[in-house]
Amino acid sequence: MRAAEPSVVATPTAIAAGRASVDRDREAARAIYDLPLPDLMFRAQTLHRQNFDPSVIEAASLLSIKTGGCPEDCGYCSQSARYDTGVKATKLMAVERVLAEAAKAKAGGATRFCMGAAWRSPKDRDMEQVCAMISGVRAMGLETCVTLGMLTPAQVERLGEAGLDYYNHNIDTSREFYPEIITTRTMDDRLETLAHVRDGGIKVCSGGIVGMGETIDDRIGMLVILAGLERHPESVPLNMWNEIKGTPVLDKGEPVEPIAFVRLVALARILMPGSVVRLSAGRHAMSDETQALCFLAGANSIFTGDVLLTTGNPQREADAALLAKLGMRTGIVPVAGP
Ligand code: SAM
Ligand code: DTB
Ligand code: SF4
């Protein structure tokens, strides 16, 4: 007898509805996660095909526009000023340099350009320069995304006026595990920024990291929070922690078992059927076979280019060879909706 078919959770406003509902959703999500792999993959593939072309993968490119020296204590991050990680702090990059990098990314096949800054939140004096980057990148015909930390509604409005399509702000992990990783801002602070972004009409990109010493239930708890938002994030990046020497997570983190990661991708696809799920950090440590299984489980976006913010990513040629081997291609992946 096969495991009972749990009804798909992803009920909106689970968080608002209170703890009991979140707990119920987590149990139902765990039951889906634990399905025999063929059943899990079948469900994920079915939903994937209803919402997307299964052979098209979105290619996003990432640029660190302001590296290091960050006041936050995120225990996984190379850019926190609190840890000795060897990352050198830089000033905010000049607009022309950013546009030159965006042009290279476009020539390399990227359709989205994501700019990241190591800030707790942007200072008003930096906003003009960031807005010029956004308008310039958009004028090149690329989708724009920035990740700048916490935002006020007024900052969201300014970014929107500059032509911002997506804002990335990750919840990173479950509510329970979160305080073991970050103490300088709370999960609720992050959810508040996500609400401002949503209310300001910018598309939401939010996901998290695995491999920091969390349990499977923490990973599932993270997805249940995202799936319980009033509207699902349009993009859900799933990062495998890229090991950073000198950070506190180094002592707790452990490699993620590949099939456990594939199951998580499938669960993300099932809980948020219309969201684009991105295999973000950690792909350079994944075999071609694991990546292929992730694509079958519903992942449909990757970062291309050989660096992320401060760590490595597979070479463009390796990605091209992988996709060719799988008979897949990069292209625009229209969001199917929440
Ligand atoms: N400072 C802003 C913030 O934290 O919101 C934006 C930049 S921050 C580097 C963006 C995200 O990258 C983090 O929220 C985290 O999820 C992810 N990240 C950071 N370091 C990572 C690592 N070593 N491995 C995997 N993901 C990481
Ligand atoms: C996301 O979820 N992953 C990207 C992007 N959003 C900004 C960041 C990955 C960072 C990996 C570690 C580094 O390169 O420093
Ligand atoms: Fe700063 Fe962002 Fe790194 Fe946290 S994740 S330390 S906020 S750059």
Description of the structure:
- This protein is of the alpha/beta class and 338 residues long.
- It has one domain (17-330): Aldolase class I (TIM Barrel).
- Helices cover 41% and strands 14% of the residues.
- It has 12 helices and 10 strands.
- Strands 1, 2, 3, 4, 5, 6, 7, 8, 9 and 10 form a 10-stranded parallel sheet that branches.
- Helix 2 crosses helix 10 and helix 8 runs parallel beside helix 10 (258-271).
- Mean pLDDT is 93; it is low at 1-17.
- Bound molecules: S-adenosylmethionine, 6-(5-methyl-2-OXO-imidazolidin-4-yl)-hexanoic acid and iron/sulfur cluster (SF4).
Write the layout of secondary structure elements.
Layout: H1 19-33, H2 37-51, E1 56-66, H3 95-107, E2 112-117, H4 124-139, E3 143-147, H5 153-162, E4 166-168, H6 178-181, H7 187-199, E5 203-205, E6 208-210, H8 216-227, E7 235-240, H9 249-252, H10 258-271, E8 276-279, H11 288-297, E9 301-303, H12 316-326, E10 329-330
Parallel strand pairs: 1-2, 1-9, 1-10, 2-3, 3-4, 4-5, 6-7, 7-8, 8-9
Helix pairs in contact: 1-8, 2-10, 3-4, 4-5, 8-10, 10-11
Features of the shown structure:
disordered N terminus; alpha/beta; 12 helices; binds 6-(5-methyl-2-OXO-imidazolidin-4-yl)-hexanoic acid; 10 strands; single chain; binds iron/sulfur cluster; ten-stranded parallel beta sheet; binds S-adenosylmethionine; 338 residues; globular; TIM Barrel
